[in-house]
Amino acid sequence: MLVLGVDPGLTRCGLGVVDGGPGQQTSLVEVGVLRTPAADDVAARLWALERGVGEWLDRHHPDAVAVERVFSQANVRTVMGTAQAGAVAIVSAARRGLPVALYTPSEVKASVSGSGRADKTQVTFMVSRLLGLSDPPRPADAADALALALCHLSRGPALARMRAARQAAAAAGRSLR
């Protein structure tokens, strides 16, 4: 399964593609960061991100996209920019008919490191180790994007089965909690 991980941000948007699945070696396909100048108009920045994410989606044709779920921060401007960048990635994937999964930072940290309280250094170390990289991905946004993709590889299949069970139950007129 090919997964694109997106660590959204207006100034730096991390992107990482990994390939793997149950019983398979997980490997790095590509990692990078889209950057937009802080001095530019927000509409121009979002459009640049949409073009960049679209290029990655068209180049790699992932099976799924994993995006970091925005969480409350003290700086409202940062939250808004992160949410807007995340929405651009979600819409770009949806336009191509790709499934999108949202994960909180603590879910991602727990998935790759075993602790939802891991710091950036620990996450980067574990991403490097899980992907067999000799050099850690830089900057942290790139490592976080790879961590999102790895999280989806480990959690995505179970979430898909739960979603299918809920849909089947709803079609049969039952409710699953």
TrEMBL record:
GO cellular component: a single term: cytoplasm
Cofactor(s) of this protein: Mg(2+)
Cofactor note: Binds 2 Mg(2+) ion per subunit.
Listed GO MF terms: crossover junction DNA endonuclease activity; DNA binding; magnesium ion binding
Main location: cytoplasm
GO terms (BP aspect): DNA recombination; DNA repair
A Pfam family: RuvC
Active-site residues annotated for this sequence: 7, 68, 141
Stretches of the chain forming a coiled coil according to its record: none
UniProt-listed Enzyme Commission number(s): 3.1.21.10
Positions contributing to Mg(2+) 2 binding: 68
NCBIfam families: ruvC (TIGR00228)
Family: Belongs to the RuvC family.
Subunit structure: Homodimer which binds Holliday junction (HJ) DNA. The HJ becomes 2-fold symmetrical on binding to RuvC with unstacked arms; it has a different conformation from HJ DNA in complex with RuvA. In the full resolvosome a probable DNA-RuvA(4)-RuvB(12)-RuvC(2) complex forms which resolves the HJ.
Function: The RuvA-RuvB-RuvC complex processes Holliday junction (HJ) DNA during genetic recombination and DNA repair. Endonuclease that resolves HJ intermediates. Cleaves cruciform DNA by making single-stranded nicks across the HJ at symmetrical positions within the homologous arms, yielding a 5'-phosphate and a 3'-hydroxyl group; requires a central core of homology in the junction. The consensus cleavage sequence is 5'-(A/T)TT(C/G)-3'. Cleavage occurs on the 3'-side of the TT dinucleotide at the point of strand exchange.
PANTHER family reported for this sequence: CROSSOVER JUNCTION ENDODEOXYRIBONUCLEASE RUVC
The protein's name: Crossover junction endodeoxyribonuclease RuvC
Organism taxonomic ancestry: Bacteria, Bacillati, Actinomycetota, Actinomycetes, Frankiales
